[in-house]
């Protein structure tokens, strides 16, 4: 019998992203003629006649460098040995399972049972599933109307799953959560789009965003035709968020006639990895309340904290602990099943908790959600699981904790190893990744490198990232995709390659950097 | 041991939508105070300050009447016997599994194995899964990079699954399909939004849409700020689509300064149920080619045909059979796992096949897709399955065919029974449902009823639908939500209640209609 675990391990060893086979019948349908025909297509739609907001939108995390990496990967597959590396290492995106992280067994057991509930009637089921997975599957099926996991749900998500998520939030925060405040979504991205769509009327509406920021925000603001109002995080204080900077940028935007509608805060930070201190969060809440801004809190990395002296606090907990309720602050918290120790990116689950909006505005949010009917039910189930994992005494509890701790402590070690490696490079400084999944080192590039980049019409950090990829197969995203203080250059690198690969990555990185500096040193 | 099949059957018998329980710990988190707080929320965001496009957008299929139905359902749960019916029958939306349709076993087996592939290593697996489900799961895992079903995929969807879908399309049409033309999406709705986002620059851009239409189109055009250019289907010829009408409306729109960019055709029709004849499709293709319009072909009901003399032909097959290739016609075909005999609405799977666009425009579509990273992997897998079901000789083939034929022949009987019932009502005429999942009967309402509706500021068909719901528990959507010739009134009713419930529905419907006419007869 062919075995999944062995097969998977073999592929990981061989470079997991190089081993996908073609569907056997693919050659029948994908003729070279069909592929080539695209270029000869003319048609009524041209770059000059499409929505200019689409043209304006950029999404660096899957931008030009990633397309180039995919081309290299195809070349490696067609012609092994054609490049000075054997595999492409995708450090461009927070996609843990693509780099070999294993899913939490309990979560997958429950998903499989909910996908095919007739398994519950099979007498062999207890041989294949843990008892608490079976119990949890029943609990979930019990709250799904008709036990139909293949039906559209309520547009906010299945009520019983929202109850469970609300209970999880309440347990996390120590303050009540209302299931009617939850909108379950296909990952956090559609939730962010929904809020931007609601808030942005024209380019005169602004959204305060950190710089550097996760490019979903700039892309979504561009697609909805608004203005991104930047506030700069302070690299010299570990990407500190200063209220004085928020005030300055808010006033500056207002003086230009921009109506600033919301403040985006990413905590833990992406790409910057800092974890906000409680006192700082209180100031932010106070600022939004005073200035009448919606606080859009991206809290998708709430489980990813790697330092002992920092702790995640949700903005809702902070606001409630200050005595502020629904009438004081409009607050939206985004959460996703893609991050944390679970890293279930492909499941597209997530939610937003929407508090402090009037009933009639909430109805409008509901209406927009209803146009897409509902988010996928597996993702909804998974969101309920990550907010209610196994508890002490459950059969899965001990293995669950071992899997979770194994992932989180390994991520902490990887973050530290890569941070140290970056800091050891000539002209590179790198803040600590206190949380999230990224390092965002600053490159102090020699003038010669900057000139060389100019000559090929590339930003200096894009030039560096492209060279790194072509030499080592490591894919990182240039800082220009996230925004940075003008004249400074960075790259974003995930901490996600499996731990046994880190030493090799570090030595490839060091060798590349040395030779790059050698070539361009002033 | 508690048994799923028995439990599910019991719930169906009792009215499947009334039986969902609360999550045990829900009472801890959902305090009345929290629920009430919404109304007291003020905050910086009001109806006057949100995006007016959001306000303008309407989505009748989940509109006011459905909210009312949900309130009635809650009342029935809290106080059984409080209404003259025991359950709410949701005939408002094409959501088969919510009304008791069972999923195709083979599809669910494969999904469960892909969700938890370690099952493949268990020696008990062959006791729980069919051999071809196991084989198919391996085939799918083999084409997923790293066999990681929890990773973000390529933004268009996993390449190997697109290969499989392209092979399925090629087998359906007899013309090649290119996997690079496929964009896998969370159901068809996000695909439609993507195309509207691409094509609409301002209210000066128009999209030709059938009237009646599926309100996703009007909602999406409103959200993206374009103009819906209506063309009327001819009810007297079974909702015929006349090219002369298309031309007239196109010219009329152009004379008003509207740039018409695309033509939406829904085939089989929603809400109208007609299946287009091949000759008619050829005329439509010719019209789009001549007029330089993108043809947006909603083909999600391609498996739902109930009459022997009609057959589904994809617009791509029609165009290719006319000798038209990529350079002649810009064509987008939408498909979904939510419809057909599979009806897997909750899985949110689907794709669009994008042909006849230049490489640079396709790059823009890819960019927009990449902002949301990818569609959910289970939905992607399911899309590959519905386009490649079991084949003769496979272990699952015989039960698969039995399940499929059982569903489709039953749907055909239900469509006929409900069509006959509507036609038997005084002042009601109803075209045949040749395909799709709906009937769209016309109500010739007495003046008194129209006056009574006016008095409560309701459209006459909304007034009728509300009365029907309050009296019988049957939820239908007023025709005004889909558009109709001014002065005519319709309702849309799905054919989806389980067959054993149809006689009772028909007698409730007849009794209601008689008493309604009795009350309002002129």
Notes on the structure:
The structure is a homodimer of 522-residue chains. The first copy, chain A, is of the alpha/beta class and 522 residues long. Chain A folds into three domains: 1-18 and 45-103 and 405-522, Aspartate Aminotransferase, domain 1, CATH 3.90.1150.10; 105-143, Helix Hairpins (Orthogonal Bundle); 152-386, Type I PLP-dependent aspartate aminotransferase-like (Major domain) (Aspartate Aminotransferase, domain 2). Chain A has helices at 4-13, 26-29, 32-40, 52-56, 64-78, 105-115, 125-128, 131-143, 159-173, 189-199, 215-223, 243-255, 278-291, 315-321, 359-371, 377-386, 397-423, 447-455, 460-472, 502-520; strands spanning 89-90, 182-185, 205-211, 227-232, 259-266, 294-298, 331-336, 350-355, 428-429, 438-439, 442-443, 474-475, 477-478, 489-494. In chain A, helix 6 (105-115) crosses helix 8 and helix 9 (159-173) runs parallel beside helix 16 (377-386). In chain A, the strands form three sheets. In chain A, strands 2-8-7-6-5-3-4 form a seven-stranded mixed β-sheet, sandwiched between helices. In chain A, strands 9, 10, 11, 13 and 14 form a five-stranded antiparallel β-sheet that branches. In chain A, 44% of the residues lie in helices and 11% in strands. In chain A, helix 11 links the parallel strand 3 (205-211) and strand 4. Chains A and B meet through helix 1, helix 2, helix 3, helix 4 and helix 6 of A and helix 1, helix 2, helix 3, helix 4 and helix 6 of B.
């Amino acid at each position: 019998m062919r075995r999944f675990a062995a097969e998977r391990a073999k592929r990981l060893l061989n470079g997991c992203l190089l081993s996908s086979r073609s569907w056997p019948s693919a050659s029948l349908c994908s003729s070279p003629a069909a592929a080539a025909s695209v270029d000869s297509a003319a048609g009524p739609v041209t770059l000059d006649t499409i929505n200019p907001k689409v043209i304006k939108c950029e999404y660096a995390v899957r931008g030009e460098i990633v397309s180039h990496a995919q081309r290299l990967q195809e070349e490696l597959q067609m012609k092994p040995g054609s490049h000075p590396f054997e595999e492409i290492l995708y450090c461009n995106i927070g996609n843990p399972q693509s780099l070999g992280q294993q899913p939490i067994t309990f979560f997958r057991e429950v998903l499989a049972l909910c996908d095919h509930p007739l398994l519950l009637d099979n007498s062999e089921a207890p041989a294949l599933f843990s008892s608490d997975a079976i119990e949890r599957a029943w609990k979930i099926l019990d709250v799904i109307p008709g036990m139909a996991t293949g039906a559209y749900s309520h547009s906010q998500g299945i009520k019983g799953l929202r109850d469970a998520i609300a209970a999880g939030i309440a347990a996390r925060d120590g303050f009540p959560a209302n299931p009617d405040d939850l909108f379950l979504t296909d990952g956090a991205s559609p939730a962010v789009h929904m809020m931007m769509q609601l808030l942005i009327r024209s380019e005169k509406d602004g959204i305060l965003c950190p710089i550097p920021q996760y490019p979903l925000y700039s892309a979504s603001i561009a697609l909805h035709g608004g203005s991104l109002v930047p506030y700069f995080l302070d690299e010299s204080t570990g990407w500190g968020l200063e209220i004085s900077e928020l005030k300055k940028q808010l006033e500056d935007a207002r003086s230009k006639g921009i109506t600033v509608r919301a403040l985006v805060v990413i905590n833990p930070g992406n790409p910057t990895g800092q974890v906000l201190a409680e006192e700082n969060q209180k100031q932010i809440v106070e600022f939004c309340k005073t200035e009448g801004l919606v606080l859009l809190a991206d809290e998708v990395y709430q489980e990813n904290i790697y330092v002992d002296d920092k702790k995640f606090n949700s903005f809702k907990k902070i606001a409630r602990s200050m005595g502020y309720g629904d009438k004081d602050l409009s607050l939206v918290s985004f959460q996703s099943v893609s991050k944390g120790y679970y890293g279930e990116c492909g499941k597209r689950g997530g939610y937003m908790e929407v508090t402090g909006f009037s009933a009639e505005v909430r109805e409008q949010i509901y209406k927009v959600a209803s146009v897409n009917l509902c988010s996928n039910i597996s993702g909804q189930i998974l969101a309920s699981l990550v907010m209610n994992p196994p508890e002490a005494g459950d059969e899965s509890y001990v293995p669950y904790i071992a899997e979770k701790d194994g992932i989180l402590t390994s991520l902490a070690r990887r973050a530290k190893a890569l941070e140290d490696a970056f800091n050891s490079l000539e002209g590179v400084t790198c803040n600590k990744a206190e949380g999230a999944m990224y390092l965002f080192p600053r490159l102090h590039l020699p003038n010669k490198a900057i000139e060389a980049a100019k000559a090929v019409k590339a930003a200096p950090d894009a030039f560096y990232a492209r060279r790194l990829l072509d030499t080592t197969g490591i894919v990182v995203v240039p800082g220009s995709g996230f925004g940075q203080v003008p004249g400074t250059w960075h790259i974003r690198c995930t901490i996600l390659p499996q731990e046994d690969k880190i030493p090799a990555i570090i030595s490839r990185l060091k060798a590349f950097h040395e030779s790059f500096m050698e070539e361009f040193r002033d």
